[in-house]
Amino acid sequence: MKASELLTHYENGERNFKGVDLSGVNLSGAILIGVNLSGANLSAANLSRAFLTKAELSEACLHRANLSFAKMGEIRLADADLTKSNLSGAFLVKSKLPRAKLSGAKLIGANLRNAILWNANLSSTDLDSINLRSANLMGANLNWANLQSARLSGAKLFGAQLTGISLKKAHLNGIDLGGADLNGVNLSEAKLNGVNLEGSNLIGANFCGAQLRSVKLMGADLTRANLIQASLTQANLNWARLSQADLSEADLSEATLIGTNFDGAQLAGAKMPESTRRYFCLTAGNFPVGQISETIALAT
User: Fold this and answer.
1) Which class for 269: exposed (0-12), middle (13-18), buried (19 or more C-beta within 10 A)?
2) DSSP assignment, residue 287?
3) Which residues, 6+ apart, have CB-to-CB distance to 198 below 8 Å?
4) Residues 7-53: tens digit of each pLDDT
5) What's the rounded Cα separation, in Å, for the pair 50 and 37?
6) How far apart are CA 205 and CA 210, in angstroms?
7) pLDDT digits (tens, 9 = 90+) for 234-252
8) What is the pLDDT at residue 281?
9) How far apart are CA 33 and CA 50, in angstroms?
10) 14: which residues sit within 8 A by CB, 6+ positions away?
11) Distance of alpha carbon 181 from alpha carbon 259, whole angstroms
């Protein structure tokens, strides 16, 4: 079907175009609110700046389609194939994309607040500056995705795959990542205030300059982690492993450190309250007390 045919039928009140072949068509800026294109072939189609609010595109093929800056609030894209598609700047608030295939897609600056993305494939996807606040990403594949400067506050990430992701400068305040595998993840300059990271694998993670106020890190493995200039005020680090971690100039004011392992950690200029420093000096057996006193700055 040609674009002109589709638009004519739509203007005449028809809304059901299930399974239609629209591969490669140009529908840029088209108004198709509430249209049913489920199972349709829209591969390589141009839908940039189109109006698709409340449209039905479940199981549609949108491989390499251009959906940049399209208005798609409350759209249904369950099981849709959006592999390598361009969704940069798209409006997808309250959209439903369970099990959608988005591998290699571009969603730079897209708005998916309150979207449903459980079990979606977002591997190697460019999600730079995306809004995923309160989105459901449970079980989603985010391996090697770029989430730099992404807004994820309130998002659900239980069971999500997070290998090799970049969360530099991301906003993750208040989310639950308890037990997550974040080995080597880049969280430099990220905001993680109040985040639950209990028992998480954070080996070699980069938290340089990150905000970790009141974060829960009980039992987390932070071996060789980079925490230079990180803010860990009021953090719970009980029984966490910080061996060989770099905490230079980190702020641990009012942090709790019961049973924390600091073997081989770098602590030059680290800031702790007097009571915590004294406790640390008694428990960090691999460090001479005099050496620790010289390297840790006392909180005032």
Assistant:
1) middle
2) S
3) 178, 179, 216, 217, 218, 219, 220
4) 999 999 999 999 999 999 999 999 999 999 999 999 999 999 999 99
5) 14
6) 11
7) 999 999 999 999 999 999 9
8) 61
9) 9
10) none
11) 22
**CA separation for the pair 10, 15 (Å, rounded):** 6
C-alpha to C-alpha distance for 211 and 51, rounded to whole angstroms? 39
The list of the chain residues with pLDDT below 70 reads: 273-300
β pairing state of 296-298 and 270-272: parallel
Helix, strand, coil shares of the chain as percentages rounded to 5? 10, 20, 70
Number of neighbours of residue 300 by Cβ within 10 angstroms? 7
Q: Which amino acid appears at position 25 of this protein?
A: V
Q: How far is CA 238 from CA 220, 221, 243, 254, 258, in A?
A: 9, 11, 14, 12, 5
Sequential DSSP letters for 65-78: -B-TT-B-TT-B-T
Is-contact 90 109, C-beta < 8 A?
no
Q: 């205030």: which residue's tokens?
A: 193
236 strand-pairing partners:
216, 256
- 10 Å Cβ neighbour count for 150? 26
Q: What is the distance between the alpha carbons of residues 194 and 152, in angstroms, rounded to a whole number?
A: 13
**pLDDT given at position 291:** 42
Spatial neighbors of 288 by CB under 8 A, at least 6 apart, are: none
Q: How many residues does the chain have?
A: 300
CA angle 117-189-159, nearest 5°?
Answer: 30
Q: Can you read off the two tokens belonging to residue 26?
A: 């140009």
Mean pLDDT of the chain: 92
Q: Is 240 exposed, middle or buried (0-12, 13-18, 19+ CB in 10 A)?
A: buried
